[in-house]
Amino acid sequence: MRYRADAVVPCDGSGRVLRPGVVETSGDTVTRVGTLDSTGDGPPMREVRVDGALLPGLVNVHCHSPMTLFRGSGENLPLDRWLTEVLWPREAHLTEDDVFWGMTVAAAELLRFGVTTSCEAYFHEDALADAVVAAGSRAVITPGVLQLPGAAPDDRWWETRTDEIVDFHARRQGDQGRIEVGFAPHAAYTVPLPGLVSIAAAARGLDALFHIHLAETEEECVRFASQHGGSTPAVLADAGVFDGRVLAAHSIWLSPDDLTIYRQHDVAVAHCPQSNAKLASGVAPLVEFLDRGIRVGLGTDGPASNNDLDLWEEMRFAALLARIREHDAAALPALSALDLATRGAGLALGRPELGTLAPGSKADMAAIDLADPVFVPWLEDDQLIEHLVWSGSSRLVTDVWVGGRRVVEGGRCMIVDLDRARSEVEARARRLLRAAS
Ligand SMILES: [Zn+2]
C-alpha cells in the first residue's frame, strides 16, 4: 500500500518534513518513506490519498488506562491520600469486565488522539489485553504487582502474582502481533525489596520490561532512604533490580548520582509532566536526562490522575516546564518534544520499530488536518514541526492506522462501539463508587 500525503513527518531522528511525501507498507510494516518524486520504478501499488500530514502513531509510555472508571474522582488530594482513600478501595472491587470496558473507552480515546501504542500497568490483564486486541490498538501490558486493601496476609505475596504474570506472558506475548507483556511492581514503597529482586529476575528471564513508579514524591524518597540507607535508585541498582530492561515512571526526586546510576544501567524514564504537576509531585529533570543520554518517553499516567490520555498536551507541557525549570527559552525545542512522544518513546520501551516511519517500522500512523487555521502560515517545510507541537492538538487527528489497518476515519473510531462502551463504564463506575463507600 502506498500512502500519499501532503506532508510526511517521519520522526526518524532526522527532523525531516517530506512535502509532499509517501509511505509504503507491506502488511503491518513500513517498507519505504520518501518524497513523491522518488516512488521509483517498483510494481504498481494500491494508493491511499491522505489529505494532511502523516505522522507515526504516538506512543504513551506510562498509562493505567482502565482507570477511565475513576476519572474525576478524588480531585485535589495528594498522591498518598488519593491512592489510599479513593483509588485502592475501589480497585479492590474491580472485575474482569470492568477492566475490559474501562480499557475499551480508553482505547477509543487514545486512538482518536493518534496514540497507537500505550504501555499499561494494571490488573485483570487478560481483560485488558482482550480490550486492546478488540479495539485494534497496540500495547505493552505490564500487569501490576500490588497488595490491595483486604488481601490476605502473606509474607511473600508477590510470588503468586509473579507466577500469574509469567503464565500471562506465556499465553499472550505477541498476541495478534500487537501485545507485549512485561511486569509492573507498583513502587519501591509498596513492594518490599526481596519482591522487587525476584520480580526483576523473572522479567530478565523473559527479556521482559520491568516497569515501576520511581521517585515520584519527595516524601517517599526520604522515607525509603531512611529505611534502606541509600536512595531508591542506589539500593535497587545494588540489589540487581536494574540489570534488565527497566522503565522508571515519574523519576522526579533524583540526585546527580542517581542520574549516573540510570545511565550506567540504561534505565529509561517515563516522563509524566501533567500528572506530576496535577498531583503536586514535582518537576522531573528532563533536560538533564536527555543531556546524559538517558532514554525518555512521555506518559499521561492514568486518566484518574491527569485526567485525559492526550499525549499532545504532554508534549507541549513537557517543553513549557523544561523551559521554566532551566530558565532557558531554547530548552527542549519542538523537535525534541515531538521525539519524546514518538521515536524516543519507542526507544524508551525498547521498541525501535514504534513511534517512527522508516523501513522496518510498524505501519502505525496518524493523519493530521493541515487545513486547520493553526497551521497558517507554513513558510518553511520544517516549520510544520513547530506548528504541530506549539499550536497543534489531538483534535486535528483525522485518521489512524495500526499495523496498516485503519482504526479511525474522519475522527470516528471504526472498531470500538463507543456508545456501548460509554454506558458500560458509566454504570460500572457508579457500582464501584457504591462498593467502596
Ligand atoms: Zn502511574
Characterize the structure shown.
It is a single chain. The chain is an alpha/beta fold and 437 residues long. The chain has 15 helices and 17 strands. It has helices spanning 79-91, 96-112, 125-135, 157-172, 193-205, 218-228, 232-238, 256-264, 273-278, 286-291, 311-326, 334-341, 343-348, 383-390, 418-436, and strands at 2-8, 21-26, 29-35, 47-56, 58-63, 115-122, 138-145, 179-181, 184-185, 209-214, 245-250, 268-271, 296-298, 365-368, 397-402, 405-409, 412-413. The strands form three sheets. An eight-stranded mixed sheet has the order 3-2-1-4-14-15-16-17, with helices on one face. Strands 5, 6, 7, 8 and 9 form a five-stranded parallel sheet that branches. The protein has a four-stranded parallel sheet with strand order 10-11-12-13. A hairpin with a 2-residue loop joins strand 2 (21-26) and strand 3 (29-35). Helix 1 packs across helix 15 (418-436), helix 2 packs parallel to helix 3 and helix 4 runs parallel beside helix 5. It is globular and about 65 Å long. The termini are far apart. The model has no long low-confidence stretch (mean pLDDT 95). Zinc ion (ZN) is lined by residues 62, 64, 213, 249, 301-302.
